[in-house]
Design brief:
Layout (H helix, E strand, L loop, with lengths): L50 E2 L16 E7 L2 H16 L5 E7 L4 E2 L6 E2 L2 H8 L4 E2 L7 H11 L3 E5 L7 H4 L6 E5 L5 E4 L2 H7 L5 E7 L9 E7 L7 H24 L17 E3 L16 H10 L6 E7 L9 E14 L7 E2 L7 E4 L4 E10 L5 E2 H8 L4 E3 L3 H12 L1
Parallel strand pairs: 2-3, 2-7, 3-6, 7-8, 9-12
Antiparallel strand pairs: 1-6, 4-5, 8-10, 10-11, 13-14, 13-19, 14-17, 15-16, 16-17, 17-18
Length: 414
């Protein structure tokens, strides 16, 4: 599949044992067939180990014949778990499939909520459910992990989807067909860890997804296929990320046979244009603050959309007419939209006149951001009307903290 053809954010072992004193441990769970309902997540144990197998009998399982490629899947979050399900389902339901998933690699189990149980990642849970062996090394460069891949897993092809770790050269040299990655941006634009967030923050439309070969340099490998899509101006990262991974998974399934039969290789895929590279750097929590004194309504809105998963966006409000002795109220902006009208710049915030209207924030240039859902500190998410009702008739203003931020940044630089 050529670029542009389609146009439209982290367990196969021959011995099951615990290697004491090693950085990698192996422990079997109770043997049971995979449930017929793939959406069932019933678990009677958790895994404090970095490496585990769901079923000892899986350790010697092989693909049906030598012509079937051994695929190792790497991923961690829910979007990657959805991709794993789709790949596994395709391999189980397609007549004479060209591949079989032999194991999954994911980030180690961790505590998902404060004081909660230590649980496998979403990919770990789905892999267990599907009866797949799971590896979860602390680092993908761990020698024990790489040794295990070479001796026991022997992948012909690796597929990554939001795995969340750098893959060393020794890993990339293992699969004869290479390593394919689903990346949710139209590469080479937005290489890096936050492509969906940065593309929405920048106001990109269309957006898209790429399937590419993985090389040592992050997201710089040759592209196998891309798909772009025009999105709604209010689409948020929370909903866009799974859509892009769904598109990427579909495209991956289309090109897999061509990769395995040698029609598509690192040499025949499309090399990225380095002159068009834009980096999608990691997001810092401090980037969540909105500055209406410097940002337009569109810029504020795009940041709300882009940072909806993390870290979120917020403003400082002053409630009431008196400033003395009152701490500013931190208010998260959960959902917003940009109004077509212009208004005289002001820092007073009022609710719109129409039913269901939001809190109207006028930026320095007169553009208007309407905040439909907000979350005051220590409170639940609420609509604009509920927020205004809680004010009990008091006025509310947004505070310009941009100068204070500039002073802090200057101190850090000095």
């Amino acid at each position: 599949m050529a670029i542009g053809r389609i146009l439209r954010p982290c367990h196969a072992f021959q011995s099951i044992a615990v290697r004491r004193g090693s950085r990698i441990n192996i422990v079997p769970s109770s043997s049971s067939p995979a449930p017929s309902n793939l959406h069932s997540h019933t678990h009677h144990h958790h895994y404090p180990f970095q490496l585990y197998s769901t079923d000892p009998s899986d350790s010697n399982k092989e693909p049906p014949n030598d012509n079937v490629a051994r695929v190792l899947f790497l991923g961690t979050p829910e979007v990657a778990a959805t991709t794993l399900r789709a790949l596994h389902h395709h391999s189980q339901t397609t007549p004479s499939p060209p591949y079989a998933i032999v194991a999954a690699v994911t980030q180690p189990p961790k505590r998902r909520k404060r004081r909660g149980k230590i649980l496998p990642s979403p990919v770990g849970l789905v892999a267990e459910e599907l009866g797949l062996p799971v590896l979860s090394p602390e680092k993908a460069r761990d020698a024990d992990f790489l040794d295990q891949l070479e001796r026991e897993i022997r992948p012909d092809l690796c597929i990554t989807a939001a795995y969340g770790q750098y893959l060393p050269k020794r890993f990339l040299a293992l699969p004869k067909y290479g390593t394919l990655n689903i990346h949710p941006s139209l590469l080479p634009r937005w290489r890096g860890s936050s492509p969906v967030q940065r593309s929405l923050e920048a106001g990109d439309n269309p957006v898209g997804v790429s399937v590419l070969f993985t090389v040592s340099k992050m997201d710089a490998g040759p592209i196998v296929c891309q798909e772009s899509v025009v999105i709604d101006e209010n689409e948020q990262a929370t909903t866009l990320l799974p859509k892009l991974f769904e598109m990427g998974t579909k495209n991956l399934l289309e090109v897999l046979p061509k990769v395995i039969d040698g029609e598509i290789t690192m040499d025949t895929a499309t090399v990225q244009d380095e002159s068009r590279v834009v980096e999608a750097g990691m997001i810092d929590s401090s980037e969540g603050e909105l500055f209406p004194a410097q940002m337009t309504a569109v810029e504020c809105h795009n940041r709300v959309r882009g940072f909806s998963m993390w870290p979120g966006t917020y403003l400082y409000f002053r409630v009431g007419d008196k400033d003395e002795g009152k701490e500013p109220l931190v208010v998260k902006v959960i959902e917003s939209r940009v109004l077509e009208e212009k208004a005289e710049p002001t820092n007073f915030i009022e609710i719109g006149p129409k039913k269901g209207g939001g809190l109207r924030l006028v930026c320095f240039d007169g553009s208007v951001l309407e905040m439909l859902k907000v979350q005051p500190a220590t409170r639940s998410v609420m609509d604009a009307k509920s927020f205004v009702n809680g004010l009990q008739g008091q006025s509310v203003r947004w505070l310009d903290t941009s100068s204070e931020k500039q002073v802090e940044e200057a101190k850090l630089e000095s």
